[in-house]
TrEMBL record:
Principal location: other
PROSITE patterns according to UniProt: ABC_TM1 (PS50928)
Family, per entry: Belongs to the binding-protein-dependent transport system permease family.
Molecular function per GO: ABC-type phosphonate transporter activity
Protein name: Phosphonate ABC transporter, permease protein PhnE
Membrane topology term: Multi-pass membrane protein
Keyword terms: Membrane, Transmembrane, Transmembrane helix, Transport
Length: 258
């Protein structure tokens, strides 16, 4: 058996043991308290969405709050995309040559930024700038810096070097080779990543209202606490419809970028 196969088998065994251990350690005692009639009643209630909540002329109806949620996600995506640009350049190993300490430090910072959940950022920004959509947008934007910085910098390191070598051989400077050979290869991929994370941010923005960061999060939690399943149902329908529409829109754009 080769060393590579031995490592693979060892990792597989460790993974299986972790899965088994996880199942063993789970607490199954509450299963006996499960009442299927309650589950059935909730299911029936979810099939009767509260249509009156879709639009009632106030700023607290479904249309207004879903629009606010999408705006939070959009603003956060734009903010994160712009602020990630310097980190992308600092994290690309192919740019810095002998000075690899710079991308190493930058990637370490990006790892830190993306390791913190958006909800934690939202709590911090609510304390800093006050409750509201702006705090939610900042939370999504800061987390996106870590995500895009890592993904796009890695794409910069994976570009085809043939065009780069060609423009350098023609007498181009490092900046010109980056602008005309590296950047055109990365821009479509970066745009695809941004669109993908916009979809993710829309879903994330639906939970930020839990901590006062705007959007549809707070109403759905209040509805759950009050067991207002009809209200929960219409909110879930709204979220699903918005996410599906954004997915279709971003998919169409990504196809044109290819």
């Amino acid at each position: 058996m080769t060393k590579k196969k031995l490592i693979n088998y060892s990792l597989l065994i460790i993974l299986v043991l972790l899965v088994v251990y996880s199942f063993i350690r789970l607490d199954y005692s509450n299963i006996v308290n499960l009442q299927f009639n309650h589950v059935w009643n909730i299911f029936i209630s979810l099939l009767q969405p509260d249509i009156s909540y879709v639009y009632d002329g106030s700023s607290e109806d479904l249309i207004h709050l879903m629009f606010e949620t999408v705006v939070i996600a959009f603003y956060g995506t734009i903010l994160g995309s712009v602020l990630s640009l310097p980190f992308i350049l600092l994290s690309a190993k192919s740019i810095w040559g002998r000075f690899q300490i710079i991308p190493t430090l930058s990637r370490g910072l990006l790892n830190l930024l993306r390791s913190i959940p958006a909800l934690i950022y939202a709590i911090l920004f609510v304390r800093v700038v006050g409750p509201g959509p702006f705090a939610g947008a900042l939370a999504l934007g800061v987390q996106l810096i870590g995500m895009l910085g890592k993904l796009v910098s890695e794409e910069l390191d994976r570009v085809d070097e043939t065009p780069v070598e060609a423009v350098v051989a023609a007498g181009s400077t490092n900046m010109q080779s980056f602008q005309y050979a590296r950047l055109p290869q990365v821009v479509p991929i970066a745009a695809s990543h941004i669109l993908n994370h916009f979809e993710i941010n829309v879903r994330s923005a639906t939970t930020l209202g839990l901590v006062g960061a705007g959007g549809i999060g707070a109403p759905i939690i209040f509805a759950l606490q009050q067991r207002n399943w009809a209200r929960v149902s219409i909110i879930l329908i709204g979220i699903i419809m918005v996410v599906v529409l954004i997915d279709l829109f971003s998919t169409a754009i990504r196809k044109k970028l290819r």
